[in-house]
TrEMBL record:
Keyword Transmembrane: yes
Entry's transmembrane regions: 79-105
Protein name stated in the entry: EF-hand domain-containing protein
Recorded superkingdom: Eukaryota
GO molecular function terms attached to this record: calcium ion binding
Organism of provenance: Volvox reticuliferus
Keywords in alphabetical order: Membrane, Transmembrane, Transmembrane helix
Family annotation (PROSITE patterns): EF_HAND_1, EF_HAND_2
Domain named EF-hand: residues: 37-72
Entry-linked InterPro entries: EF_Hand_1_Ca_BS (IPR018247), EF_hand_dom (IPR002048)
Entry coiled-coil feature ranges: none
Length: 247
């Protein structure tokens, strides 16, 4: 075994000679990484930084490793930012396509729905459609195709709704009749000539009929002199009132 002291003051390098196999083993220098003791994968990575090919990566060569590591981290952050920008651009693009499609459909739309009636977009004229089952007679009447005597007629649609004093004036528009059911099963109907809403607590609804006035307190009948000559008025106390509306 021989020991040597380098003139530049570096640690002693010890060389051991085995006479049998004539192999020299040299311990790594201080502050360096000996590649031989690392895994094959680590050796493959660090060998690129062993500039002098001595099988060790010293301090100056480790600086290159750190520089590469910092650059790779920076590239990773830039790649992540790029992905985020691409996703944002894709979302904006999809939103733009949707908005453009909606605008095109809206511009080209020629009809609109007003008060539950399909009309032309720039007017209040109802949309007219053709029907193969009916035709217009010279007199202006709509008749069945092939049978001029079968004239198409119209009738008023009536809707029944329970009345209450919390309804608004617009809700009561179209009220033409009211019907009250007695406790013994008798039904009394009245033609409506007018109505008024009274602000009170609870609110009141006064319904005018040719026979008199009906008064609802909430949704119950409290005054019913209009029915005094028709049925036993005790049968109507506290009963609900059904309104018949013309559609």
């Amino acid at each position: 075994m021989s020991s040597f002291v380098k003139p530049d003051g570096e640690p002693t390098v010890t060389a051991t000679l085995a006479a049998e196999d004539e192999v020299y083993e040299v311990s790594p220098r201080y502050g360096s990484v000996h590649l031989k003791g690392l895994s094959m994968e680590a050796q493959g990575v660090l060998s690129k930084f062993d500039r002098n090919g001595d099988g060790e990566v010293d301090e100056s060569e480790l600086e290159g490793v750190v520089d590469v590591l910092v650059k790779e981290q920076f590239k990773g952050r830039m790649f992540l930012c790029g992905i985020q920008m691409i996703v944002l651009a894709l979302v904006v693009l999809l939103a733009s396509i949707f908005g453009l499609a909606w605008a095109v459909v809206s511009i080209n739309k020629s009809t609109a729905l007003r008060n539950r009636v399909l009309v032309r977009k720039n007017s209040d004229d109802p949309v007219q459609i053709a029907n193969s089952d009916f035709t217009m007679a010279p007199s202006g009447a709509i008749t069945a195709r092939g049978n001029s005597r079968a004239v198409l007629g119209t009738s008023t649609l009536y809707v029944n709704r329970q009345l209450n004093a919390n309804m608004t004036t617009s809700d009561l528009t179209g009220l033409v009749r009211v019907k009250v059911s007695g406790t013994n099963g008798a039904n009394v109907g009245f033609r409506v000539t007018g109505f008024s809403l009274r602000s009170s607590n609870p609110p009141q609804l006064h319904i005018s009929t040719p026979a008199g006035i009906l008064v609802l307190l909430g949704d119950r009948l409290t005054s019913y002199n209009a029915a005094q000559d028709l049925v036993d008025t005790d049968e109507l106390a506290g009963q609900s009132v059904t309104g018949i509306f013309a559609g």
